[in-house]
Amino acid sequence: MIGAKLKIALLYDVWNEDPVAAAAKEKEKEDEPPARKTRRKKTKKKRKEMTDREEIFEALAKLGHEPSYFELDGRPQSLHSLSRCDADLIFNLTESFDGDDTKEMNVVAYVDLLGIPYTGAGPHSIFLAQDKAVAKKIFAFHDIKTPFFATAYRGRIEHAHDISFPLIVKPGLEDGSIGIDVGSVVRNIKEMMERIQYIQDEFDSPSLIEEYIEGREIYAGVLGSYETAQVLPLVELDLSRLPEGTPKIATYDVKFEKNTEVYKLTKSQLAEDLDEATTKRLSDTALAAYRALKLRDYGRIDMRLAPNGDVYVIEANPNPWLASRQEFAMAARAAGRSYTELIGEIVELAMSRYPKAGFANGAGN
Q1: pLDDT bucket at 239, cuts 50 / 70 / 90
Q2: I want to staple 323 with a disulfide (CB 3.0 to 4.6 A). Which of 4, 52, 98, 118 is the partner?
Q3: What are the phi and psi torsion angles at 330 (to 5°)?
Q4: pLDDT value at position 28?
Q5: Per residue in 91-117, pLDDT tens?
């Protein structure tokens, strides 16, 4: 256990915010005459939902640390500011740089060069997980079952396997279900080519074309690094109530758009009805995938459990969403950890990689 109080900077990214325009807008507000007060009927105030970084900040404070926020806004100046950060540890919550997801690994590579300890995956792991085609090839090398696939980009199709319809076509370099909707599942050549063109036009990304696996969507949170990694209780995203004819997949709307019908019809819950053998098969597969991509501290492996019992890894997620209401924290609670204890354990795992003297000297991959 780390007894010392640490200065911990919560590093997160924002984009599409023009600082000059934002300052001008704030100035306009200040110059506006005060609005005339009118009597209003009292309404019950809704409690504002905390963001993940606010929850983590609160947990770190409860643990006796000294948390602070550090924002990367996509400008070089914010990188220069980061180089002067005097934190003992960076709690890394970045997902991009200036909105570019492919630069996520560059952020942690930069922090590596600065020699500041940080939580979560290193740049090598983030690259391997983000390029889904590369990840699937690594899974195949380790005998980890994953759907057969091919990739296509700007007229060139790389056939990794002979694949058959139905297929699911999605961006090969995105995460968080970006680019996945009901049109992602295709049943013929025409639909496939239209979807490939859409992904190229919309994301300028290679398309990952893989066999659609019917089955249950199972998420395995993994906590720890290398030989100490352990799988948390399994969580299922229940897609069974989706309307008839709707593909049973975790689209962007299913995951994030709270006002959509599909969001309201789906929910994540502990997968408690699995027998011991199936649970072990899922957990062993998740652990093998986690280690194959060199993930560390915490991560989530998304799998499909086919009706015949086969387990397929769909993708690996380094540094998954840590909001207390989301799947990773749900699994940690089921394992007997409070939210504060979970955050504390991630800090412990990260700091264990660095020499104690000075809390510095660079990070490994």
Answers
A1: very high
A2: 52
A3: -60, -45
A4: 47
A5: 999 999 998 888 999 999 999 999 999
